[in-house]
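for the recovery benchmark. tokens below, seq after
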């Protein structure tokens, strides 16, 4: 009798198994694309032995795209894309300072500053309240390329505009540049610079 119960048990087990869907616990890769708008900006803050200065590029004259890829189980998020900023667009709100900065950055020989985006520490949670993350970028300036970790603040406003604010301290010497001097060296620009950029973007998908 027991073997008849076993024979009846197999069809019932198969029937029940057909109604049970296996759970997919494998992480799914996620890809997002953001289009950078023209009203994005970059600012460089520095100082001399007598005062402070701020030089900015108030608008971005190109349309570029950033791509964010989170792979299956990856801890680090890939952020790819780059922006090219014209050195000639820097405005220090002082004609002498503007001329000196462009000359120091070798504008005629290297007309653009390039920022290539590499990674994010985590996939961003877009909301009205800004969240803090970090990421790695490659900055190419005056013919020298160097990798830096950047601090970000990211959020999305009511119009679905994504705001990515990045900041990082750099030095002229990072790029083998000599800070400008004036009046026979009496006015000396300090080596340290604080760079901040504000990317305004719209999601493509």
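predicted aa per position
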């Amino acid at each position: 009798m027991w073997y008849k119960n076993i024979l009846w048990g197999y069809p019932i087990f198969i029937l029940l198994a057909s109604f049970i869907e296996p759970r997919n616990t494998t992480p799914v890769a996620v890809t997002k694309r953001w289009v950078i708008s023209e009203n994005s900006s970059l600012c460089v803050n520095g100082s001399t032995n007598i005062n402070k200065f701020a030089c900015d590029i108030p608008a971005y004259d190109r349309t570029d795209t950033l791509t964010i890829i989170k792979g299956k189980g990856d801890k680090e998020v890939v952020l790819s894309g780059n922006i090219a900023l014209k050195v000639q667009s820097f405005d220090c709100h002082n004609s002498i300072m503007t001329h000196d900065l462009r000359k120091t950055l070798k504008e005629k020989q290297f007309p653009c500053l390039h920022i290539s985006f590499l990674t994010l520490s985590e996939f961003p949670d877009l909301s009205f309240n800004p969240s803090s993350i970090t990421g790695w970028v490659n900055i190419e300036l005056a013919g020298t390329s160097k990798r830096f970790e950047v601090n970000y603040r990211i959020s999305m406003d009511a119009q679905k505009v994504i705001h990515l604010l990045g900041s990082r301290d750099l030095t002229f010497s990072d790029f083998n540049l000599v800070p400008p001097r004036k009046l026979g060296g009496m006015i000396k620009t300090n080596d340290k610079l604080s760079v901040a950029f504000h990317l305004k973007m719209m999601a493509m998908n």
